[in-house]
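Sanity check

After download, print the first record. It should look like this:
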Amino acid sequence: MVGEISHIVYAARLLSFLGEEVSHASYWNGVTFPNIRKLHVRTRHFTHPHPVSIASLTGSNDFLTGMRVHAWIDETHDRFERHQTIAEHIPDHPLVPYARSLAEDELLYDAFLDWDVIQKALRTVHHDELYYVHERASVRKWHDVLQAYFLHKPNNESRMIFSRAIGLSHAVANEANATVQALLAMPEIHQVLEGYLRDIEHTIT
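Expected structure tokens:
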């Protein structure tokens, strides 16, 4: 599972590969859109193109390219992790996948320097978003949730707000925060994150 901030950071790395294929800020709308499924308005299958390869990242417009990049990140991140031994070091807990995505978001936030670009993109509902989710209010809610989450480096408070916004109870959100803190103290989490970043760089060079 890849977090919302992590998707932005990884998608930014891919811009050097995409080059002139991306020229509009709607790319970021496409990158952030697929996880609207967390609001339970659409299934993952509906918002995540599959299959996507490095050679087929470019869509018919920048928004659709962003969606394809999001899906590619999910697929390659999952494949990379299956070849790691990190599972041997992490407690077996149902919240770990979600908490790991939150932990990685905190670790990666400072790796992206222009959050104003993302905030500006999310002020607009792109017409393709309404093709996948017909209710403008649902898309606008997702944008609002993301804009609040992206305002500053994640902490327990902003994670709580995000978790509650996607429907988790206060107790579960608290438990997720505690799990995040435990994961952040594990060097293996940092090592796997750095390894996936290297894997992206190797793929696109």
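If your output differs, re-run the checksum step. Summary of this record's structure: The two ends are 25 Å apart (CA to CA).
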